[in-house]
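Protocol step 4 of 5: obtain the predicted structure for the target chain.
Materials: sequence only (see below). No template structures provided, no constraints applied. The aim of this step is simply to have a reference model before the mutagenesis design in step 5. Sequence pasted as it appears in the construct record:
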Amino acid sequence: MARHESGPTSVIHDIGYQRYEGVRLGRGHAVRSLYTASLRSAFGLGRTAKFKFLPFGILGLVTLIGGIFALVRQLSGEPPGATYYLGVPTTVGLLAVIFLAVVGPEMVSRDLGNRTLSLYFSRHIRRSDYAFAKLAALVTAVFTVFVAPLLVMFLGAVLQSGIGMDDVWDEWQKFSAGVLNAGFHAILLGALSVLLASLTGRRPFAAGGIVAVFLVSTPVASAGMDIGDGAVGELAGLFSPFSLLAGVQEWVFDEGIEVGRFGPLYGLAGLLLTAACVGLFVQRYRRVAA
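Step 4 output (structure tokens):
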């Protein structure tokens, strides 16, 4: 009986694949790239016009408000008070809330809803890296919203005719205080908003949660400050992010809401709330399923 000898059952084809031998940019570059991409997405850059409309619309409105303030100041000819720069975050607060309610879910809820986190975590990037990059991008974006009118107001002041170097230096000090105050607002509001947005993968629910927290807490705190007497009224501002920040502003810059002797308590509460939001946000991504 003849034996059947089987031939080769498979063939390996060399199609030219080569091992990558170039520079590996590593974890730091990955985190920076995620931060940059997230910041671009906050303003709809690289996407269609409908994604740019609201963020750039809000940025345009706050810039217009800054221009109106600068124009009124020039027409009146009066030197600005302490609230000229420090009061800007409160003035544009509602626009900032709308911005956070749209941009926060866009940054984190979309990845949760589309289940794309595994694509990020399969590379060098860690879960905490993802959280901090997203947080930094949102804080930067809302800081831009707060600083844009301040910059217009400052330029409107220093570019007017007849202003001396002493006046420019005084203006710079007031502007710097306003920028620092805007930074306080951006960090706390950004940390709180990104935490709320990360609780759900559905963007409408995330946006509604952010708006609800700000719009419900603010009237409650305002009512407490109006109705309460003495220490009760001075402590009522702790129950809203915006009034809490106004108390910190009073403590640091001597311009805000009435907090009496509780200024350091407002500063501590602001620090603890920010730290709690950041910690819970990072912990959320250490536990979330990829």
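Step 4 remarks: The CA atoms of residues 225 and 232 lie 7 Å apart. The chain has a mean pLDDT of 88.
Proceed to step 5.
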